[in-house]
Amino acid sequence: MDLLAAWRVFVNVSERGSFTEGAAASQVPQPVASRRIAALEQHLGAKLFDRSARGALLTDFGRDLLPSAQRLVRLADDMEWEAGQARLKPLRLAVPEICAVRDLALLTVEARQEGVHLDVVAAAAGIRAELARSREVRAALVATPEDGATWVVDLGLAGVGGPPGPVVYVESLRPARADRSGRRPRIWIQPEDDVPHIRDRLFRIRDAAGLLPSQVAVAPSLVVAAAEVMVSADLLLCSPRQAAELGLEWRPVGELRLPRGYAVASAIGDDAERVRGWRRVAACLGVDA
C-alpha cells in the first residue's frame, strides 16, 4: 500500500466531507479512493469514517489523526516543490577559456535534453580546480597529466606558412637562426598550457636543445601569442583545431609528445559522472572526433 497516497485521500475526503469530491481532489477514481481508505483502516486497525452516516463523517479515531495527516501531506507537497526547484538549479561548470562559443552552446543543448540547466563559467587553467574545491562551481574541467585524463588533446607547434617537414624540432630554433633584426624565433605557451606537466617539459627540451631562455615563453593570453606568431617566425604551442581556427599550419613536436589532458573535478560524484557522459565535452576541448 502507498501510505502517502492513502493519507492524501484521507485528508481530501475529510476536508470535503465526500468520497466523490475527495477522490476528485486526489485525482483518482472514487472506487480507488474507497479502496485506499479501506486499506488504511485495515493497516491502522480502526475505522476512519462512519460509513453509516450520510456523507463522509470522521470517527473519533479519524478526527484524532487528521491534524498529523494534514501535516504529512503538506510536508510531502513542500518536498515535491523543492525537488522541482532543485532540478531547475543550474549546474555550474568551469570550462577552459579556449572553448568555442558554438561548442559550449551545443553542450548546453545536450545538457537540457537530459533535464540539466547548464551554466558554463570560462576560467583559466589555474583557477578552475580552485573553483571546484571552493564549490563556487559544481564541476570543473581541470588540466591533468595524461595518465589521469578523461580527454586528451595532442599539442604541436603552429606558425604562418608552417615549419618545414612533417614535424618541427625545438632544436631547429637555436640562436643561429636569428633574423636580420637579431630577434630569434620563439615558442609561445598559451595560458591554458601554463601547467607543470606541459610547461616544464617544454622548458627542459629548450634547455637541452641549447635555446635561449627567452625563446620559450608563456604568453599573457592566447590573443597576444597568436598576434606574435602572425607577424613573425614564432610558433604557437596549440592543438590542431586551434591552429585551424587561427589559420596557422600545425606540426607535431619532434622531440616528444605533449598531450593536454583534462579530467572532471567535482565535490559530488554524480555531477562528475554526468559531465563525463556528455559527448559534447570532447568537442569543447578540441578532441578530434
Explain what you see.
The chain has helices at 3-16, 19-26, 30-44, 60-88, 101-113, 125-133, 196-209, 222-230, 240-246, 269-277, 280-285, and strands at residues 49-50, 57-58, 91-96, 118-123, 139-144, 151-159, 187-189, 216-218, 235-238, 249-252, 258-265. It has 289 residues and is an alpha/beta fold. Helix 1 (3-16) crosses helix 3 (30-44), helix 1 crosses helix 4 and helix 2 (19-26) packs across helix 3. The chain is rod-shaped, with a radius of gyration of 32 Å. The two termini are 51 Å apart.
Task: Describe this protein with a few key phrases.
289 residues; alpha/beta
Q: Give the amount of beta strand, in percent.
A: 15-25%
Q: H/E order of the elements? A: HHHEEHEHEHEEEHEHEHEEHH
Amino-to-carboxy terminus distance: 51 Å
Largest sheet: 9 strands, mixed
Average pLDDT value?
90
Low-confidence stretches: none
Supply the number of helical segments: 11
Give a count of the beta strands, DSSP E runs of length 2 or more. 11
Apparent shape: rod-shaped
Determine the fraction of residues in helical runs and give it as a percent range: 40-55%
Structural class: alpha/beta
Cα-atom radius of gyration: 32 Å
Briefly characterize the structure:
The chain is of the alpha/beta class and 289 residues long. It has 11 helices and 11 strands. 34% of the residues are buried.
